[in-house]
Design goal:
With about 325 residues, the chain is an alpha+beta fold. The protein is about 15% helix and about 30% strand. The strands form five sheets. Strands 1, 2, 3, 4, 5, 6, 7, 8, 11, 13, 15 and 21 form a twelve-stranded mixed beta sheet that branches. It has a five-stranded mixed beta sheet with strand order 9-23-22-18-19, with no helix packed on it. A two-stranded antiparallel sheet has the order 10-14.
Length: about 325
């Protein structure tokens, strides 16, 4: 099932919650009966009993099977007639992990560093800004304080239920779904910040892209590899040219391990986002800016992940104070 946040051409500033079935977007407000309040956002849905009891799938079963007996088809629109937004425009929090060994090794090598032994002892993360989230086809503002803009090819999961000290073996039950994530990075600022001994802050503060939809876990069951990994091709293109290619199955720390770590002694809540970190060779920093130049205004960046779709953004114009 693919859940979308969208707006219409007639009301572009009003977002609604829908489900994408083939090439049609069905509005979910009409799915639930009169005894239930309509769910107008993904966050509302995640907070609701319908989602926790998996009543959503039951309500949508005729629609998903192509029978269209729910009445929701009366509000369907062709996907080309709507604007898809970030599935979760304002997540409750945004943690980004550092879980692909190849990326970590390559990035540290470029700074003249060996792998830290501690990286193999626990999955680590930093907090990004949940108030600077962008969706499909949004223009990404070029930060005026940077001259080295980069993309990062990642997968994100969304938490579906409240929990603390979540065991790794049951952590999959806390995942609402997956989506493509672009962790935009100001590399020159990030490099200076990390020399101080803390993680990136302003180097990552200005933008994160999510989308184009949230894909529920059942959509990827047949792509499972071993324990808690999936065979999903991951690609990045800039102006139509392939820059990066990787696979999600190569991740070292899995999402259940990340969730177990993040929930130690703190509650995770529905609507919190957890990023995987960058797949190996999934950014210009690893590829080498001497070969692939940093992004510039007007560049179109497409991140494509098997089953999760294509997340496309254009780099906006920098201000006069910037590049």
């Amino acid at each position: 099932m693919k859940l979308v946040t969208y707006s219409t051409r007639s009301s572009p500033s009003v977002t609604r919650l829908g489900i994408l079935v083939r090439n049609s977007v069905f509005d979910l407000e009409s799915v639930f009966g009169p005894a239930s309040q309509p769910k107008r956002s993904l966050l509302e849905l995640l907070d609701s009993e319908e989602y926790l009891k998996e009543g959503l799938e039951a309500s949508l079963k005729p629609l998903l099977e192509g029978k269209q007996e729910t009445g929701a088809e009366q509000r369907s629109l062709d996907v080309n007639e709507v604007f898809l937004r970030a599935p979760l425009p304002e997540p409750r929090s945004l943690r980004d992990f550092y879980s692909f060994e190849e990326h970590v090794r390559n990035a540290r090598r470029r700074r003249g560093l060996e792998m830290a032994p501690e990286w193999y002892e626990m999955p680590v993360f930093y907090y990004s800004n949940p108030r600077t989230v962008y969706g499909p086809d949004d223009a990404i503002p070029y930060p005026k304080y940077s001259k080295a803009l980069d993309y990062e090819l990642e997968i994100a999961c969304v938490i579906r239920r409240k929990g603390m000290d979540i065991p790794e073996e049951s952590a999959n039950d806390y995942i609402a779904g997956y989506m493509v994530m672009n962790d935009w990075s100001a590399r020159d600022v990030q490099e200076r910040e990390m020399k101080v001994g803390l993680g990136p802050a302003k180097g990552k503060d200005f933008a994160t892209s999510l989308g184009p939809y949230l894909v529920t876990p059942n959509e990827m069951e047949d792509k499972g590899v071993g324990k808690d990994r999936h065979d999903l091709q991951m690609l990045a293109r800039v102006n139509g040219k392939e820059y990066s290619r990787g696979n999600f199955k190569d991740i070292y720390w899995t999402f259940p391990q990340m969730i177990a770590r993040a929930s130690q002694d703190v509650y995770l809540y529905p609507g919190e986002v957890i990023g995987s970190g960058t797949v190996g060779r999934g950014c210009i920093l690893e590829l080498g800016p001497e070969k692939y130049s940093w992004l510039k205004a007007g560049d179109v960046v497409e991140l494509e992940i098997e089953r999760l779709g294509i997340l496309r953004n254009t780099v906006g114009e920098p201000t006069s104070e910037g590049r």
